[in-house]
């Protein structure tokens, strides 16, 4: 209910109205010596913050009431200074007999002592200093750990540590915390496990048997360091770590929401990410390019595409004619960009401050709408992305052709203008010959002298809505009547009539857009034609004298008036289907509208010479247009569009664009202003300037969040869990760091080494911490079951992409082609809304790495989805790892794994054609990177003899050892 209305109905005596001055309200009362004076800031404000502001703040205003300042209490008459008994505020917080108080509706009611404090405050004059604005306090303040400056304190040397653990600061950090937890590190991993771990980690693929054998045999101290350098230099590295980053930035190649149409031109963003990571592009530059690539990369397509990050998320393109709903959809669109940006780069859920100040982190609603103002000019969509050279070269080829086209167009226009002048002069003369009514969408009847026919043809010369071009018309019934007394409709399906013509077919869809015409007199038989003729074939020759057709017949369905119907036509009959005779036409009918009238007059007044000249001009124009069309178009990519967004911008109270709050300008986040200097930009500045300023603030050396978040992401992908377990939430609801000093040290190393990831990889992977064995120890597991403190290397299951890519590589089928448009492992059907049907069988065109699959939202890919490949409708900073029956069933029975089992069998027959023992040994080397034990060799040999080599390969591809790294 609206409390204001309740106040008016009660009409309390003594309630102040808005005309009473503040001086009268805040009068001084003599406080008795035995009654303590109530201080608003000390005694009352904490009560309102704890019990009331969750619903009654400036941002929310439930019941149209805010308790942030005294303004609402005064203007709406909720209290009477000096008289609590006539103050509505007291009624709302007090119980009514046995009934609980009306307020607060959520949370714990006020205690008797708190109610008494409010009562005494009102009794003493309800003094609320104007300077005091109360806010609901967030759980975390500006002193939250992740908002503090980076501290680069290295741990002291511990002489009790093994020498190998003393040189790398990472090891000293880890060892120090292990000692606190009462744990000790594990010994080094064996060489086979280490090369598998490192190779999968950096490339997402297993090492080849030859690479494994060479590494195991190399006992030099530099062998492992050379391995890391080789892997970091591999193009496979960018594909693996590019996939990680694409997860973080919610890269998806369909629009999402109800229509979820495919996006065929976003793949350059994927290639940009892979290329940038392979090149070891400084990550602060990559962040700048993501936010402002269209500005700093102007005329550089390989850089400009980076800004597609802003529009790579789901996008509601359904549209809404209602202005209120359209505004809400637009607000939702900007919200998605704000959330994606803040979570990816800053590790904060700024999106939670859309409707009110953040409940848990010190993020104000004003901070959210400052970012909203920053991105307000971004609109989803595609546009040309090309270099200045590309544009210039294309224009040089195009210009002479467009000049020729303009010349021909002018000649044709001049010719038609002259014909039109004659047509206007003789319009009445011609119109006098049009004696019949125009063609009717409800029913058009043509009668003629009896003629024998085996087939009847409707030749469409024009349609109502576009008299010049036939784009598609609708016919719901076509009747052919025999001559004589017992006339009957021989076009009916039951009488043997068959309709032949072209339906309009939706692109990339399985079925026709309109139903096949059946001459049955039913509404369901509507025909949406694409060609200019419709032929009715009769069962046998008939003598006919009447044709009736319609596109919107009232007795079939209510008249809608929106059918594009046949307006100009000829009707022909044939006794053999080869020779045709015209039996009727629309020449003497009145035109259906003025456009048809003008076109008919032009045709009547055009001479044969003019017709030939016009035909020549049309041919030459067609040829020029063909040459223009043959010129390669400039690339068009889904990179978004900029539109002016000068503001003014406001807070949206409760997140609603219909409830405007205080004005805001584009700025950085206020809660970091003491650490990273705040900027503020007036909204009249170009939108790109706002994003430039934001990008510079995000990667500022003073901003501690960005390097902390990025360093933690790198650690997360190396060890399976980050130092902060929630990679995109460094706030109160996220996890606390297990090694905060180590995280700061890594973040500083990242900055000091020019934001280069490869340097950070080497520092981490060369540590003894990373090179530990993954063997478990019962006593350590009791203390730290998940190895969060890294007393051993945490083993992991391969990600969905790694499983699929590994199967292809092991079986000799992996195609390492990089970049370009993706392939599909689904059938895509689209007819306003889109459907993605998983393929039952995959051809060789799908044997590329999984990162190049056209990753559509809400699409299912059997093996990939079963192994927790995420739906890219959302960012996925941390992959799930489930165990389900579908995983085993898919791996065992899907045609993909069956095909690969056969491929592995063929590979083994080529590479190890000798005794069964040799075949088994090669299979183990390919699949596991090791030799089989004697027992394994014997057992596998027996299996091959009993069931054949393909069955053995199928078993090998279904082993746990294939999909776990330790």
Automatic annotation (TrEMBL):
It comes from the Bacteria. The keyword Signal applies. This is Planctomycete cytochrome C. Residues 169-379 form the DUF1549 domain. The keyword Ion transport does not apply. Residues 510-590 form the F5/8 type C domain. GO terms for molecular function: electron transfer activity; heme binding. Residues 1-33 form the signal peptide. Keywords: Signal. Residues 690-943 form the DUF1553 domain. Residues 52-107 form the Cytochrome C Planctomycete-type domain.
């Amino acid at each position: 209910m609206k409390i204001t209305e309740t106040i008016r109905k009660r009409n309390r005596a003594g309630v102040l109205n808005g005309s009473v001055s503040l001086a009268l309200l805040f009068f001084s009362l003599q406080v008795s010596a035995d009654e303590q004076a109530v201080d608003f800031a000390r005694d009352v404000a904490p009560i309102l913050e704890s019990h009331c502001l969750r619903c009654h703040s400036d941002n929310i205003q439930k019941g149209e009431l805010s308790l942030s300042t005294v303004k609402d209490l005064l203007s709406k008459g909720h209290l009477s200074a000096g008289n609590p008994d006539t103050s509505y505020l007291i009624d709302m917080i007090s119980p009514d007999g046995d009934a609980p108080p009306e307020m607060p509706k959520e949370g714990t009611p006020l205690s008797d002592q708190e109610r008494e404090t409010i009562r005494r405050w009102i009794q003493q004059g309800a003094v609320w200093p104007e300077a005091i604005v109360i806010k609901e306090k967030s759980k975390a303040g500006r002193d939250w750990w992740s908002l503090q400056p980076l501290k680069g304190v290295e741990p002291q040397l511990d002489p009790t540590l093994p020498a190998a653990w003393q040189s790398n600061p990472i090891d000293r950090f880890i060892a120090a915390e292990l000692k606190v937890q009462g744990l000790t590190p594990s010994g080094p991993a064996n060489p086979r496990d280490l090369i598998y771990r490192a190779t999968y980690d950096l490339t997402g693929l297993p090492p080849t048997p030859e690479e494994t054998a060479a590494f195991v045999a190399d006992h030099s101290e530099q062998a492992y360091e050379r391995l890391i350098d080789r892997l970091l230099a591999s193009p496979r590295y960018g594909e693996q770590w590019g996939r990680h980053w694409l997860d973080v930035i919610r890269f998806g190649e369909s629009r999402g929401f109800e229509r979820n149409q495919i996006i065929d031109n976003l793949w350059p963003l994927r290639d940009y990410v892979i290329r940038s990571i392979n090149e070891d592009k400084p990550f602060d530059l990559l962040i700048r390019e993501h936010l402002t690539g269209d500005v700093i990369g102007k005329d550089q397509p390989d850089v400009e595409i980076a800004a597609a990050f802003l529009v790579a998320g789901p996008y509601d393109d359904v549209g809404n004619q209602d202005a209120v709903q359209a505004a809400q959809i637009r607000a939702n669109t900007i919200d998605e960009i704000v959330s994606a940006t803040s979570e990816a780069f800053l590790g904060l859920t700024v999106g939670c401050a859309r409707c009110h100040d953040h409940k848990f982190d010190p993020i104000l609603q004003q901070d959210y709408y400052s970012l909203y103002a920053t991105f307000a000019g971004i609109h989803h969509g595609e546009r040309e992305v090309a270099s200045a050279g590309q544009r210039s070269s294309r224009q040089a080829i195009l210009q002479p052709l467009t000049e020729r086209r303009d010349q021909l167009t002018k000649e044709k226009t001049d010719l038609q203008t002259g014909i039109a002048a004659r047509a206007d002069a003789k319009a009445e003369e011609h119109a006098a010959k049009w004696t019949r009514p125009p063609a009717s969408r409800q029913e058009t009847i043509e009668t003629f002298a009896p003629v024998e026919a085996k087939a009847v043809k409707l030749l469409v010369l024009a349609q109502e809505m576009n008299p010049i071009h036939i784009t598609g018309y609708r016919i719901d019934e076509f009747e052919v009547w025999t001559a004589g007394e017992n006339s009957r409709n021989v076009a009916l399906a039951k009488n043997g009539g068959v309709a032949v013509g072209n339906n309009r077919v939706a692109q990339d869809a399985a079925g026709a857009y309109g139903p096949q015409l059946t001459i049955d007199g039913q509404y369901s038989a509507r025909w949406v034609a694409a060609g200019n003729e419709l032929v009715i074939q009769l069962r046998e020759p008939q003598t006919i004298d009447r044709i009736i057709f319609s596109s919107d017949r009232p007795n079939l369905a209510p008249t809608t008036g929106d059918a594009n119907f046949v307006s100009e036509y000829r009707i022909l009959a044939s006794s053999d289907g080869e020779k045709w005779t015209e039996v009727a036409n629309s020449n003497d009918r009145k035109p259906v509208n003025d456009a048809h009238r003008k076109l008919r007059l032009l045709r009547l007044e055009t001479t044969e010479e003019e017709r030939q000249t016009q035909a020549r001009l049309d041919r030459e124009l067609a040829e020029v247009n063909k040459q223009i069309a043959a010129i390669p178009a400039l690339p068009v990519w889904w990179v978004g569009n900029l539109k002016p967004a000068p503001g003014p911008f406001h807070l949206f109270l409760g997140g609603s664009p219909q409830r405007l709050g205080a004005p805001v300008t584009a700025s950085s986040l206020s809660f970091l202003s003491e650490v990273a200097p705040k900027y503020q930009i007036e909204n009249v500045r170009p939108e790109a300037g706002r994003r430039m300023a934001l990008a510079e603030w995000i990667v500022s050396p003073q901003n501690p969040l960005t390097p902390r978040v990025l360093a933690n992401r790198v650690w997360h992908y190396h060890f399976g869990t980050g130092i902060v377990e929630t990679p995109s939430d460094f706030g109160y609801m996220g996890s606390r760091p297990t090694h905060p000093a180590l995280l700061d040290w890594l973040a500083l190393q990242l900055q000091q080494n020019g934001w280069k990831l490869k340097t950070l990889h080497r520092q981490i992977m060369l540590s003894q911490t990373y090179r530990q064995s993954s063997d478990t120890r019962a006593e350590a597991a009791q203390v730290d079951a998940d190895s969060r403190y890294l007393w051993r290397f945490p083993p992991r299951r391969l990600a969905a992409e790694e499983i699929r890519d590994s199967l292809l590589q092991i079986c000799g089928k992996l195609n390492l082609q990089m970049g370009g448009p993706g392939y599909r492992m689904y059938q895509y059907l689209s007819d306003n809304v889109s459907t993605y049907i998983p393929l039952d069988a995959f051809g060789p065109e799908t044997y590329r790495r999984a990162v190049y699959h056209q990753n559509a939202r809400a699409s299912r890919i059997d093996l990939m989805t079963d192994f927790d490949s995420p739906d890219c409708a959302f960012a996925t900073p941390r992959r799930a790892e489930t165990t389900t029956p579908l995983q085993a069933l898919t791996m065992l029975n899907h045609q993909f794994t069956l095909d690969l089992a056969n491929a592995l069998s063929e590979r083994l027959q080529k590479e190890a054609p000798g005794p069964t023992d040799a075949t088994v040994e090669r299979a183990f080397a390919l699949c596991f990177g090791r030799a089989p034990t004697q027992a394994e060799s014997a057992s596998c040999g027996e299996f091959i003899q009993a069931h054949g080599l393909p069955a053995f390969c199928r078993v090998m591809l279904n082993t746990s050892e294939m999909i776990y790294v330790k």
